[in-house]
Write a structure and sequence with these properties.
The protein is an alpha/beta fold and 560 residues long. It has four domains: 201 residues, HUPs (Rossmann fold), CATH 3.40.50.620; 106 residues, Alpha-Beta Complex (Glutamyl-tRNA Synthetase, domain 3); 115 residues, Ribosomal Protein L25, Chain P; 88 residues, Beta Barrel (Ribosomal Protein L25, Chain P), CATH 2.40.240.10. The protein has a seven-stranded mixed β-sheet with strand order 10-23-24-25-21-22-11, with helices on one face. It has a seven-stranded mixed β-sheet with strand order 19-16-17-18-12-15-20, with no helix packed on it. A four-stranded antiparallel β-sheet has the order 4-5-6-7. A hairpin with a 6-residue loop joins strand 24 and strand 25. Helix 12 packs across helix 13. It is elongated, with a radius of gyration of 31 Å. The N terminus is likely disordered. The site of adenosine-5'-triphosphate (ATP) has 16 residues, from helix 2, strand 8 and helix 9.
Length: 560
C-alpha cells in the first residue's frame, strides 16, 4: 500500500490515545515521551520521523521529551555517535528536555533483577545461547523448560551475584525471566534479561560485566524517567507483553508507562537501517556518514535539505499503523518548495562553453542588474558583471539543432538572462570538430532583456562573464540505489548501488557566489538548488533539481 495519495489527517491514532488518556486523567494530563537511539551509528531519515513524532507530541501537549541513549550493547557503541546524535537532534530543531542514558540506570536495573529473583520470577541458566534458542520452540511448537529453571531463589541469587562479580566467563550464564515456556507469544518464553560481556563501555568503563537486554532496560528506563507514552516502531509489538510484564512485577516510581507502536518510515530508493548504512561507509561506497548521498541527518544537512522541510514532510505523511513506502520524490518536493521561497538566485555554468561577443566595445565593462529572488521582494537585486567574453552551458548551443530546439544556434537570437539579446554567427572548432567557441553579436538596445521594436526570442539562457568568473567544484547527485526498493526480497541492497550516483564538474560562477556562507543554499538559475559545502564553500552539492518529479508521478497515477 502506498499512502502517498492520502492527505495528512489532523489527528492520528497516537494523539487520539493521548487525548483519551487526558480525558480519563490517566497520567494527570502529563505527556512525556522519549527518543531512544542506540549510539551505534548516526541517525537517518527514519529516526527523523521518530524524533519529529516524539518531540512533536511533547510540543503539542505542553509535555517534555528526553533524548535517551539506549547504550546497553557496549561492543558497538561509541562516544562520537553520542555526540553526533545530540547534534543531529538539535539541528532538526528540537531541544531535549534532558539527555539521559540507560547505563545511568544499571544499578537500579540490577536491584530490580534481584527483586525478581527473590520472588521466584527469574533464574540463572547455564545453557548457551544456541541451546536456549532451540528450546524456545516455534509458533506451533511449545517451548521446553531449561533444566536450570527450578533452581531455588537462594541459589539463583548467589549465581547472579557471581555473574556480576566476575566469577564466570562471558556467555557461561545468563539471567532469564521465569514466565511461561508455552506462552503463545514467543517473547514471553523466559526471555534473557542479562548476559555477561567483558567489553569496555563508553560510560561505565569496566564497572559492569553484565549487561541488561533491550527488554529489561527499555520499559524500566521509561518508568524511571516518568515517561507516559513510550512510542516505538511496529516490530516491537510482540515485545509489548514483556514490557508490561516487567513493569507490572516491579515497584515503580510513577504510573506505568505504556508502549504504542507506529509504522516505520520507508522511502523509495533509500535504505533506513543503520547497519546497512554503516556497511556503505565501511566499504567506501560513500565518503562517510555525512556524504550528501546518504539518507542520514548529517548527509541531508550537507546536501542542503532545510530542517524545516524535513519536519514539514513528516507532518504531512503523519503516523500510521500499517507499513508503507513513501516516494522519495515527495520528500524532495517539500525540499524544493521551501528552497524556492528562501533561496537567492544566482548564475552558474556547469559545463562551460566560451561565447565571444564580437561587437562588444573593446575593454568596456558593464554591470547588469538581476533579481535575487522573485518569490521574495525583500531579497532585492544585485549587479552582475557583463563583458565581451562569457561562459554559457554547452547544452545551450547546438550546431545541428534537433527539432524544437529553441536555444542558441547559428543565425538564432536568444536572450541572456538579465542581459542582452545575442545572435550566434560562427563557431571555432578543435581538431576533432568539437565546438570550443561561439562567436556572437549583441544588440545594445536590448539591455534588460527587451527589444525596443518588440521582437521576441524563444529562449532565455544563463551565463557568467569569463573575466570575473569564480571556479568551483560542483557535485551532481543521482539516486544512491537504482532499485526503488533496495534490499527488498532476496536482493542485496549493494547490488543496486548506482555507480553514477555522483558526477563532479568544474563550474564557472558569477562573482557574488565567492561570498557565500558555508552551508548556504542558492538556486543556480535554470539548474536547481545547490548548497555550499559546510566545510568548504567553494564546493557545491546539488540539493535537488528544479523539476517537480512528484507532480509528474501524481499525474501518471491519475492517468492510470
Ligand atoms: P536501525 O535498524 O537503523 O539501527 P533501530 O531501530 O535499531 O534502527 P535505534 O537507534 O534503536 O535504531 O532507533 C531509535 C528509535 O528510532 C527507535 O524508537 C526506533 O523505533 C526509531 N526508528 C528507527 N528507524 C525508524 C524508521 N525507519 N521509522 C521510524 N522510526 C524509526
Ligand atoms: Mg535498535
Amino acid at each position: 500500500m502506498s499512502e502517498d495519495s492520502t492527505e495528512h489527517t489532523p489527528i492520528d491514532f497516537i494523539r487520539e490515545k493521548i487525548n483519551s488518556d487526558n480525558e480519563s486523567g490517566k497520567y494527570g494530563n502529563r505527556v512525556q515521551t522519549r527518543f531512544p537511539p542506540e549510539p551505534n551509528g548516526y541517525l537517518h531519515i527514519g529516526h527523523a520521523k521518530s524524533i519529529c513524532l516524539n518531540f512533536g507530541l511533547a510540543d503539542d501537549y505542553d509535555g517534555v521529551c528526553n533524548l535517551r541513549f539506549d547504550d546497553t550493547n557496549p561492543e558497538t557503541e561509541d562516544q562520537d555517535f553520542v555526540d553526533g546524535i545530540i547534534e543531529d537532534v538539535r539541528w532538526l530543531g528540537y531541544e531535549p528536555n534532558e539527555v539521559v542514558y540507560a547505563s545511568d540506570y544499571f544499578e537500579q536495573l540490577y536491584q530490580w533483577a534481584e527483586s525478581l529473583i527473590e520472588r521466584g520470577l527469574a533464574y540463572v541458566d547455564d545453557q548457551d545461547a544456541e541451546t536456549i534458542s532451540e528450546q524456545r520452540g516455534g509458533f506451533t511448537t511449545p517451548g521446553q523448560n531449561s533444566p536450570f529453571r527450578d533452581r531455588t531463589a537462594d541459589e539463583n541469587m548467589a549465581l547472579f551475584r557471581g555473574m556480576r562479580a566476575g566469577d564466570f566467563a562471558d556467555g557461561e550464564k545468563v539471567l532469564r525471566a521465569k514466565i511461561d515456556m508455552n506462552h503463545e507469544n514467543m517473547q514471553m518464553r523466559d526471555p534473557v534479561l542479562y548476559r555477561i560481556r567483558r567489553e569496555h563501555h563508553v560510560r561505565t568503563g569496566t564497572d559492569w560485566i553484565i549487561f541488561p537486554t533491550y527488554d529489561w532496560a527499555h520499559g524500566q528506563s521509561d518508568a524511571i524517567e516518568k515517561v507516559t507514552h513510550s512510542i516505538c516502531t511496529l516490530e516491537f509489538d510482540t515485545h509489548r507483553a514483556l514490557y508490561d510484564w516487567c513493569l507490572e512485577n516491579l515497584e515503580l516510581p510513577a504510573e506505568k508507562p505504556e508502549q504504542t507502536e507506529f509504522a516505520r518510515l520507508n522511502l523509495t530508493h533509500t535504505i533506513t537501517s543503520k547497519r546497512k548504512l554503516k556497511a556503505l561507509v565501511e566499504d567506501g561506497s560513500v565518503d562517510g556518514w555525512d556524504d550528501p548521498r546518504m539518507p542520514t541527518i548529517r548527509g541531508m544537512r550537507r546536501r542542503g535539505y532545510p530542517a524545516a522541510s524535513i519536519r514539514a514532510f513528516m507532518d504531512h505523511i503523519g503516523v500510521s499503523k500499517a507499513n508503507s513506502t513513501h516516494d522519495i520524490e515527495l520528500l524532495e518536493s517539500f525540499i524544493r518548495t521551501e528552497l524556492n521561497k528562501i533561496s537567492l538566485r544566482r548564475m552558474a555554468v556547469l559545463r562551460p562553453l566560451k561565447v565571444v561577443i564580437t561587437n562588444w566595445p573593446e575593454g568596456q565593462s558593464d554591470m547588469r542588474e538581476a533579481i535575487n529572488n522573485p518569490e521574495d521582494d525583500t531579497a532585492g537585486t544585485r549587479e552582475v558583471p557583463f563583458s565581451g567574453e562569457l561562459w554559457i552551458e554547452q547544452d545551450d548551443f547546438a550546431l545541428d539543432p534537433p527539432p524544437k530546439y529553441y536555444r542558441l544556434t547559428i543565425g538564432r537570437e536568444v536572450r541572456l538572462r538579465a542581459g542582452y539579446f545575442i545572435t550566434a554567427n560562427d563557431v571555432v572548432t578543435d581538431d576533432d570538430g568539437n565546438v570550443v567557441e561561439v562567436h556572437c553579436t549583441y544588440d545594445p538596445e536590448t539591455a534588460g532583456g527587451q527589444a525596443p521594436d518588440g521582437r521576441k526570442v524563444k529562449a532565455t539562457i544563463h551565463w557568467v562573464s569569463a573575466a570575473t568568473a569564480v571556479d568551483a567544484t560542483v557535485h551532481l547527485y543521482d539516486r544512491l540505489f537504482t532499485d526503488s526498493h533496495p534490499g527488498s526480497g532476496d536482493t542485496e541492497p549493494l547490488s543496486s548501488l548506482n555507480p553514477d550516483s555522483r558526477e563532479t564538474v568544474q563550474a564557472k560562477l558569477e562573482p557574488a557566489l565567492a561570498d557565500i556562507e558555508p552551508g548556504q543554499v542558492v538556486q543556480f538559475e535554470r539548474l536547481g538548488y545547490f548548497a555550499a559545502d559546510i566545510d568548504d564553500a567553494s564546493v557545491f552539492h546539488r540539493t535537488v533539481g528544479l523539476r517537480d518529479e512528484w507532480a509528474n508521478i501524481q499525474k501518471r497515477k491519475q492517468n492510470g
